[in-house]
Design goal:
Layout (H helix, E strand, L loop, with lengths): L17 H6 L42 H14 L3 E5 L2 H10 L6 E5 L4 H9 L7 E5 L4 H7 L4 E7 L11 H10 L3 E5 L4 H4 L9 E5 L13 E5 L4 H13 L5 H11 L2 H20 L4 E5 L9 H7 L6 E6 L3 H10 L4 E2 L9 E4 H5 L9 E5 L5 H15 L2
Parallel strand pairs: 2-3, 2-4, 4-5, 5-6, 10-11
Antiparallel strand pairs: 1-7, 6-7, 8-9, 9-12, 11-12
Bound molecules: pyridoxal-5'-phosphate.
Length: 391
Amino acid sequence: MSDQPKSLSKSLPKSLKPRTLVAQALGAIDPETRAVALPVHVSTTYIRDPDNQYRSGYVYGRPDNATVRQTEAVIATLEGAREAMLFGSGMAAATSVVLALPPGARVLAPQVCYWGFRDWLINEAPLFGYHVDLVDMSDLPAVRAAIKPDTKLVWIETPGNPLWNITDIAGMAEIAHAAGAALAVDSTVATPIFTRPLALGADIVMHSATKYLNGHSDAIAGALASARDDALWARIRQVRGHHGAILGPFEAWLLLRGLRTLDIRVRAATESAALLASRLQRHPGVAAVLYPGLPSHPGHTIAAKQMSGYGGMLSIRVKDGEQAAISTAARVEVWKRATSLGGVESLIEHRASIEGPSSPCPTDLLRLSVGLEDAGDLYDDLDRALRAANA
Ligand SMILES: Cc1ncc(COP(=O)(O)O)c(C=O)c1O
């Protein structure tokens, strides 16, 4: 990477709390105008100096862009990373990690995780010559047994969609590194506010920045953050450049704006999610509540160890089964019936319907993404829908 370009003025010390750092986007101001809201750099190309050099640090918009870099700097700081890279989607970020591996490499991934990436790993990664093994990541002896000599990447997602399974990041880093593999963590749901995977030994952190990092359901984006500027990271940068997978400048700017309220948004959503989880546990229409903050959740002990908050995502299993679950989702008025997560508006989704027949998701499960509405309004709406659907 070239020297820090002029437009990336950074003034706040990294030792400040995340809430302070994000609120001011690291304290960046526009060096030309002293504006506190940064401009969007849309240019696809840059002037070469008369002596044939490129001194601004920029050459062309496919490998690099100043708005993208500013947003990357915020994410890298939040994750305690050496560098971050932004992509056109979470899927572009995740697949770029695999595509950066040597030909024929093997990837170990969770049996249950974000279905789109799982589907790509199973059905498309082999077309590029990669081998993929799936394992229950909560079973450390099974993970050890599943690692093979050519395993180059262990991929985990914690909390994992849609059961919110918790994976022990430090334990997994130990296993991966002992086998000479890198550990990548999809930390979309935890956010850097609640988990810092690199500090726990992970090599790469991935986010669907479409979710909490942006937080307003108005931009598709993906992020990677790396502990080191090593050969794998250099390969990922090449993949992003060659495949044209970089995030567009407008989306990077929206993401930078969304990030300013990240800390306050995820804390508010978590407070409501915890309240809903404990009230829904006692609801007559609910067979089970899956939320890592509940002591009944199988991952609770590890979550308490590696997360400083349990996040805004939970799932419920509806007592009367699949039709009652679909009918509950049909009857809500405040919750929005839609896929995705991590936005300001609360979303409800019958996951098995979107994941299709190959999904390991129970058919009575409703996934809840808790937004910023009043928690009492959210509970009352769901309570009404559950009672009507289970009547
Ligand atoms: C945990 C997780 N990882 C990755 C993705 C993929 O991200 P994107 O939709 O931004 O490509 C998603 C999307 O739902 C997700 O929930």
